[in-house]
Amino acid sequence: MKWTVIGYWGAYPEKGEATSAYLIEQDGFRCLIDCGSGALSRLQRFVDVKELDAIVLSHYHQDHMADIGVLQYSWLVQNSLHHTKHKLPIYGHGEDESGFAALNHQFTEGIAYQEGDILDIGPFQFTFQRTTHPVPCFAMRIRIGDQVIVYTADSSFDQELIPYCSKADLLISECSFYHGQDAAKAGHMTSSQCGRLAASAGAKQLLLTHLPHFGNREDLVKEARREYDGPIQLAYEGWVWQG
Ligand SMILES: [Zn+2]
Ligand SMILES: [Zn+2]
């Protein structure tokens, strides 16, 4: 299982980059996790857009799905050029009617998931757990055999995340604020809370992502390290984990 960071900013992308977007691959199956602002452009450094096999969205905030519309245009253009009628499945929760409706298009098909669902998407088994966020949002636990990746999506610190992240080979945690800031008010986590989550869950490695546009981001790693003694990495475009 290969995980590549495409976009890692919270809220908006810094120049030439993207907000939340990750590529997960196995045996030639390519799945995009979230599709934030700038994702379509940056994704093409790593994969041809028409070679995507599925997309899974955590929620409908723009920094996680802003590029769905232009991705649909890209599939329209590519299908027209190649005289094909390939349809791309886009998995999203069904609790936001207009958000979910936007996943349907001539060449994309929205497929609704719910908390607790166990979905086989290509070679990956996905399970979803609701997070604590101002809008419905779902963390993802992704398994192949005995390998597990957990992506928190957007969430404030929540005890229920601990068993969900249990023993993850790679924990990808949103890290929107620094130690001591009130992240919960905005539905997000601090660096220290990410570290505590990784330690409590017994995660083997921690990737900090959904990063803030202020402060010295290397401090996020130092602050998380006070809570967690495993390997910690700050996300950047092109960072790869291979299990
Ligand atoms: Zn976000
Ligand atoms: Zn959000």
From TrEMBL:
UniProt entry tagged with the keyword Zinc: yes
Superkingdom of origin: Bacteria
Cross-referenced InterPro entries: Metallo-B-lactamas, RibonucZ/Hydroxyglut_hydro
Keywords on this record? Zinc
Any Pfam family the entry gives: Lactamase_B_2
- Report domain Metallo-beta-lactamase positions: 18-210
**SUPFAM superfamilies from the entry?**
Metallo-hydrolase/oxidoreductase
Q: Output the PANTHER family linked to this UniProt entry.
A: METALLO-HYDROLASE YHFI-RELATED (PTHR46018:SF4), ZINC PHOSPHODIESTERASE ELAC PROTEIN 1 (PTHR46018)
Descriptive protein name: MBL fold metallo-hydrolase
Q: Which organism is it from?
A: Sediminibacillus dalangtanensis
